[in-house]
């Protein structure tokens, strides 16, 4: 449904016919870690994330999984190989 509380005119998953069903009945402003992300938008009452209603919870346990300004690094596993087993596998 379309939000009628804070993010007026935006589609919101928490909006119902009775009003906002999110905790507290409204969205919360962005936190400083969100600076540089493409998801926050400015509304009449301040800057709010259009992807999640409470950005501070996304940053609580590390990086936000919706952040567009962070680049995820691929982990390269440097597993040690037993040379005896490697020679046996290569002989087949």
3D architecture notes:
- This protein is α+β, with helices and mostly antiparallel strands and about 90 residues long.
- It has one domain.
- It is built from two helices and four strands, in the order ββββαα.
- It is elongated.
- The relative contact order is 0.15.
- The mean pLDDT is about 85.
Percent in helix: 10-25%
Beta-strand content bin: 5-15%
Tell me the distance between the termini: 62 Å
Residue stretches low in confidence (pLDDT < 50, at least 5 long) are: none
Count the beta strands. 4
Q: Number of helical segments?
A: 2
Briefly note the structural class of the backbone: alpha+beta
Task: Note the overall shape.
Answer: elongated
Helix and strand string, N-terminal first? EEEEHH
* Rg result: 22 Å
Domain count: the total is 1
Summary, kept brief:
The chain contains 2 helices and 4 strands. The protein has 92 residues and is an alpha+beta fold. The radius of gyration is 22 Å and the shape is elongated.
